[in-house]
Design goal:
It holds the Pfam family Succ_CoA_lig. This is CoA-binding protein. GO terms for molecular function: ATP binding; metal ion binding. It comes from Xanthobacter tagetidis. It contains 23 helices and 29 strands. The chain is an alpha/beta fold. The protein has four domains: 294 residues, Succinyl-CoA synthetase domains (Rossmann fold), CATH 3.40.50.261; 162 residues, Succinyl-CoA synthetase domains (Rossmann fold), CATH 3.40.50; 77 residues, 2-Layer Sandwich (Dna Ligase, domain 1); 115 residues, ATP-grasp fold, B domain (D-amino Acid Aminotransferase, Chain A, domain 1, 2-Layer Sandwich), CATH 3.30.470.20. The chain starts with 27 loop residues before the first helix and ends in a 7-residue tail after the last strand.
Length: 724
Amino acid sequence: MSVPRAAVPAEPRSVPPATTAIDTASLKPLLEPRSVAIVGASTVPGKIGAIPVAMLREYAFPGEVFPVNPKADEVFGYRAVPDIASIPSAIDLAVIAIPAPGVMAALESCADKGAKAAVVFSSGFAEVSEEGRAAQQKLAEFARARGLRIIGPNALGVANIDAGLVASFCPFFKPRFAPGGAVGLVSQSGAFGGYVANLAQDRGLSFTKWITTGNEADVEVADGIAYLAQDPATRVILVYMEGARNGARLVQALEMARAAGKPVVVLKVGRTAVGAEAAASHTASLAGADAVYEAVIAQCGAYRASSIAEWFDLGYAFAFGKAPKNNAIALVTVSGGVGVMMADEAETGGLDTVPLSAAAQDRIREIVPFAGARNPVDVTGQMLGDLAGFEQMVEVVLAEHPFGSIVGFNAGAGHKEENGFRIQKVWETVRARHPDAYIAISGATPPAVQRAYEAAGCLVFTAPDTAVATAARMARLAARLAEAPSPIAAPGAPADIPAHALNEHEALELLKSAGLPAPDVRVAATPEAAARAAEEIGFPVVVKILSPDILHKSDIGGVALNLATAQAVREAAATVLERARAAAPDARLDGVLVAPMMPKGGVETILGVTVDPVFGPMVMFGLGGVLVEVMGDVALRRAPFGLKEARAMIGEIRGAKVLEGVRGTPPADTEALAAALVALSRFAAANADRIESIDVNPFLVFPKGRGAVALDAVIVPAAGRAAS
């Protein structure tokens, strides 16, 4: 009996992403308009129809502004017109601030006036009822027919700070955001977008573009990401999302950002079943499986934040600071206890607190005899009264190693502006000497001093552990961006998948034809035929009941192992058939499967495929047994993918060390495993419309160089294809 061995192919031929590019040029009238009409403009300050007009005046929008109000001659200094037909010239952008029943007619009139984009504030569409959903669908159809790009409905609007455009009723654009910001925001939720604008005001952060998409009748989160990926002013993209309508477009947008070298930080809500249901009802979008979103975001080189604070801190850090060039971090603190906390956070985040040499430690102690000098470096509180000595100590630390990150903790020493500015000057000098490092300061810092730090390229955090954690997260995201995207495997050829439920033999044969290694097996209708099959294969063998209706064969005693003689096979085949008839009298029985008994020494793993409603076929990998069933220790990837991505999948599960060899066991043939994952991904991509799921369990991986083999498989045809 020979063990099937999976040949490890060369890296599969790369294929380009979807050839239909996201049309970012069509968003120019939305975010860079030359003229704006506000339908439903109001003269009453604070009203939804008043705020965008007032903001256009506040931000000195340089184009033409046409408030539409039949009862007013002027709105916030702009001459009003009684109706859309009275607008004296063509318009680029229409802002619709009227109740839902009048929206369609307003859009038609604006399109007749040449509008190429519209922002619809109005609610009462897909987020509230089926009637509203139908009305929203009509808006979408109209937009496609007329070439009109629509934000909303049920949206808070958009802003382009540098262009003086605030087409929103968000109240947090006053006081004015400064031009020259670095952060682009795309948010499905308008209220959350407004909240973030308020956070940004408090943090001194400014936006390049601010986009809320609402119900996404037309413009989706993916469109906003793609636009910002190509926007020269935007250095970091913050995304808030509840779900995606079109997974392929979201992937394409994220890949555009990766190609442009722009970090994308995603706050994807709906992790729990309750949260997912709330998200779906809020934006009327498909939630999809949360683990799938997690995997796709990472696979596209973006970063998913776990909290608002983490998300916003990363946006702040990429706007004002530099991403670490490596994982080495220097910690400089006035408190030994806080130094321990910072070191803990560094190790948790995968950063390396490289210890200083004995010579450097001696030099530090010459400056301060009682300093903790290893790294973290505890300069003690007295050093903040001797800033020249403090600067010397910092330079001794930084001369030791090309640290990618430098984090300082000043405690409360800089809480008064005078002393705060003195300390800030030291760090400004450090920044000038180390222009490419991540430098962050933590502790009590007055606002004016914080702005001085940020102007010099130093980040400021209240909590020292947050400063360290942000460095670690930036390093991970920067590493993803710096890494060349994994080559994408070409999808395989579509397979002839039967419409009826497949038994194990049919499933294994399909997967074998797709490139997955499988044993030489035989199907036998009778015990005598099973004995003959065993003699052809070679002893010892396994006999299993063969039925598409009995998935857990061992539960009914439908598996017999290590059979060494023809008579043993006859008896086992008769027994498993009898047990199957008794346990599942209505099941379709296709006989028994006779397979070679595998040698000991392999690692059982599980490979699987599910077809996600948003992102399509997703490949799953995990170790067999409790790690998958109880701990959920699996890796996911969107199909198809290449060997590089497959190797990353194998390495990222918590149980990966089992495959590396533990307690004297040899390392597993992970190259054969990676090749099988690629083959499965190609099969899944080619047959996404024909399958619902695939389960290869167990997939046995032998020691290095000896291959791997699929021992059992289930393929569930797509709903509607299976025979009744």
